[in-house]
Design brief:
The complex is a heterodimer of chains A (177) and B (236). With 177 residues, chain A is of the alpha+beta class. Chain A has five helices and six strands. Chain A is globular and about 50 Å long. Classes of the chains: A alpha+beta (177), B alpha+beta (236).
Chain lengths: 177, 236
């Protein structure tokens, strides 16, 4: 009995319900861009969120984006986006490369939340490969949840939809005479 | 009545209050709908437990607007417009907007406080800002570690210039009424209700003693469960 109580007391001290908000940089945004455009290094362009794009973006985000002008990098029909969204409390920075209206690369660049960092792993990010927007701006790919990281997972799904929507806008603007 | 039965009773009565705190705070923390991270505590006794100390206010003038930073907020005059962890390096008023220099970026914000854009080294910022000003022609001048840069108000292209003897604006002393107002806001918007409940749940709100008491109450709960089942099985 005495031993059991001692073990339980020790275990209770080992349980730590708090963990600090540490900023984890998995890939510097500059490095993400160099990897995305190894042969060319395009300058940043900026897309202004107005009109129909603003309306559609509001639907995807269920609210407004934190900035009015969004930087992007373009080479031919390929665009790269560095976007931010709060999972639970702090913004997660993610990079997307879109080509032919499909996601060709997705990386979690900076993670600032206390939980849910597992989303930077390849087993999660590769679920977005070749994803495109279906009707009503839904994501074509099934993305599995990670227990304990639901809000971070949802944030990344939303950003993927956002990147695809912004890419379509840029390409349609380019093709308009 | 056996000794174990008696011990079970005393443990139950002795740990009742702590177990109630543990359970109620646990229930509240599990309710994401309550948005506890968006609510803040303003009670001075509770805030005192966190030993927050002073909330210095750092300010720069941007024409008729005073841009300040205190705690984890950015203020335009007395209005908190955005959460921000970095310190200020400078600020200027453009024709319609305000440009704020931070150690690693430039933040473009409307006079109503809406964030328009943020320039980082990978998205068009030529160098880490050290000071910011607008010249008589309305061009933006940025002092970097190695050079001085010039841009128009669109901030789309930066040119290195060789102008010397520029008197870069310093931080200003925040007017005392504004300073007090900002400090009050920053202090009462620092600790979220979620954090307070989490600290109460773990006992950390009351330091090492609180932590130990909460750990003991958890042990008491485990003991109650095990001894309860044991006593019940003996009666059967």
């Amino acid at each position: 009995m005495k031993n059991l109580v001692l073990t339980l007391v020790t275990l209770s001290f080992l349980v730590n319900p708090l963990s600090a908000h540490a900023k984890r940089v998995y890939l510097e945004p500059g490095d993400f861009l160099s990897q995305s455009f190894p042969k060319t290094s395009p300058d940043a362009n900026r897309l202004l969120i107005t009109g129909d794009l603003k309306t559609n973006l509001r639907k995807v985000l269920s609210g407004r984006y934190s900035k009015i002008r969004i930087p992007y990098w373009q080479s031919g029909n390929k665009t790269a986006w560095i976007l931010e969204r709060i999972g639970k409390e702090r913004p997660i920075t993610a990079g997307f490369v879109v080509e032919g209206n499909r996601i060709v690369s997705f990386k979690v660049l900076i993670f600032r939340e206390s939980r849910g960092w597992e989303i930077h792993n390849e087993f999660f990010t590769e679920q977005f490969d070749n994803a495109y927007l279906k009707d009503k701006q839904k994501l074509s790919n099934q993305v599995d949840n990670i227990t304990g990281a639901t809000m971070s997972v949802d944030a990344m799904k939303t950003l993927a939809r956002m990147a695809l929507l912004l890419h379509a806008e840029v390409i349609s603007k380019n093709s308009t005479p | 009545m056996s000794n174990l039965h008696k011990f079970h009773r005393y443990t139950g009565v002795g740990s009742a209050i702590l177990v109630l705190i543990l359970s109620i705070t646990g229930l509240l923390l599990n309710s994401t709908d309550l948005e506890l991270d968006q609510r803040f505590i303003s009670n001075s006794w509770l805030l005192k437990q966190y030993s927050l100390g002073e909330f210095p206010v750092q300010s720069y003038a941007a024409s008729d607007t005073i841009v300040s930073k205190s705690g984890r907020y950015l203020y335009l005059n007395n209005e908190a417009v955005s959460e921000m962890n970095e310190s200020l390096v400078g600020s200027i008023a453009l024709q319609q907007d305000i440009l704020i220099a931070l150690p690693n970026s430039l933040l473009l914000i409307s006079k109503e406080g809406e964030v328009i854009d943020q320039l980082f080294d990978y998205s068009g910022l030529p160098e880490r800002p050290q000071a910011l000003m607008v010249d008589t022609l309305g061009l933006v001048l940025l002092k970097g570690q190695n050079a001085v840069w010039q841009s128009d108000s669109n901030l789309s292209a930066w040119q290195q210039i060789s102008r010397k003897n520029i008197s870069w604006p310093d931080a200003i002393e925040t007017p005392s009424v504004l300073s007090k107002e900002i400090q009050r806001h920053a202090r009462t918007h620092e600790i979220s209700l979620e954090r307070m409940l989490l600290d109460l749940h773990s006992g950390r709100l009351f330091g090492k003693i609180g932590e130990t008491l909460m750990s003991l109450s958890a042990v008491a709960l485990i003991f109650l469960a095990l001894s309860g089942v044991y006593v019940w099985s003996r009666r059967q």
